[in-house]
Specification:
Blueprint (H helix, E strand, L loop, with lengths): L10 H16 L2 H8 L3 H15 L4 E2 L6 E2 L1 H27 L5 E8 L9 H10 L5 E8 L1 H9 L5 E5 L7 E16 L13 H5 L2 E5 L5 H7 L3 E6 L2 H9 L4 E5 H9 L3 E3 L6 E11 L6 H10 L7
Parallel strand pairs: 3-4, 3-5, 7-8
Antiparallel strand pairs: 1-2, 5-11, 6-9, 6-10, 6-11
Helix pairs in contact: 1-2, 1-3, 1-4, 5-11
């Protein structure tokens, strides 16, 4: 494909970038059909137009499946930033009229839905109740990805565990989450009753989370053998259920397997930890009525505790 330089960004470019972003997130033209409300052939034409406009091959598509090129991944990242900036501009203008409308982008760590407190859910419900022109976009991903997107403006707010704070972000606690050490039904310790001695803990194969963890968590894992790693809580649960590993999970998330008799806590009085779940926003961000409304409800004195 011949190289070209893009000039002024036109409305058609914004439209094409939105289509490209949706296709990339869905992973195929077929999966994007329903969300976009247009046919695969139309999507293909739009993608071809965008590639011609940019002079870049954005993706490979064919019998081998759909995959972004290296250039496509760069364009996707930069288009997310551009589209977030356009949406932010629209919200700034709308605030002149003091009317809640536009897109609210929030990132939440995986598997927080089983948290019995409903502060985030209630705040989102309140925000949507402000008007039909409010569109809520939730991104479920890792803590590191959420914090990056809050920093560069692609997300208005994130909900993550409190580990080591980043200098460009503000953090406010909303939940306290208790986690315990678990084994699966096929694990040799499942039939064990009572507290295990320290020597038995030191020899256990554990699944350790990727990314940043608190010093307290690191100290607990330091007693065991790091035999596997997982990117999120669901990955840890998968490996615990194999019966080959132990690992820490939030009690509210593990409870479903405990009730089924598929998981067991190990030394719950000595091998547990409490972590703050926090809401994080970018320091010095521009005034945003959607974010302000969400935060006001989240920390309202009468909101559910």
């Amino acid at each position: 494909m011949p190289k070209s330089k893009i000039g002024q960004i036109a409305d058609v470019d914004i439209k094409l970038l939105k289509i490209f972003k949706t296709v990339a997130e869905c992973g195929s033209f077929t999966a994007a059909e329903t969300l976009l409300g247009i046919t695969r052939s139309s999507i293909s034409l739009h993608m071809g137009d965008l590639e011609k406009r940019l002079g870049i091959r954005l993706c490979q598509r064919g019998r081998a499946g759909f995959a972004l090129t290296e250039e496509g991944r760069v364009v996707l990242r930069d288009s997310e930033t551009l589209l977030a900036a356009v949406e932010n501009f629209r919200q700034q203008v709308n605030q002149i009229h003091d009317h809640l409308r536009g897109e609210f982008n929030i990132g939440i760590i995986n598997n927080l839905i089983t948290q019995p407190q409903m502060k985030v859910t209630n705040a989102l419900s309140h925000l949507r109740g402000k008007g039909k022109d409010v569109v809520i976009n939730i991104s479920m991903t890792t803590q590191e990805e959420i914090e990056r997107k809050v920093l560069d403006g692609r997300l208005h707010v994130g909900v993550v565990p409190m580990t080591s704070p980043l200098s460009g972000l503000d953090y406010r606690a909303i939940y306290s989450e208790k986690s315990s050490l678990y084994c699966g039904r096929q694990h040799p310790l499942f039939a064990h009753s009572g507290e295990l001695p320290e020597a038995a803990i030191a020899g256990l194969d554990a699944v350790v989370p990727n990314g940043r963890i608190t010093p307290e968590t690191l100290a607990l894992y330091g007693r065991m053998q790091a035999a596997a790693r997982a990117s999120d809580r669901e990955g840890i649960a998968f490996l615990i259920l194999t019966g080959k590993f132990v690992g820490f999970l939030p009690d509210h998330y593990a409870n479903i397997w405990v009730e089924r008799g598929e998981m067991l806590t190990i030394n719950p009085h000595r091998l547990s930890l409490n972590t703050d779940i926090v809401v994080t926003t970018r320091k010095g961000s521009n005034k945003n009525l959607l974010l302000e409304s969400f935060m006001a409800e989240l920390f309202h004195p009468t909101s559910e505790q």
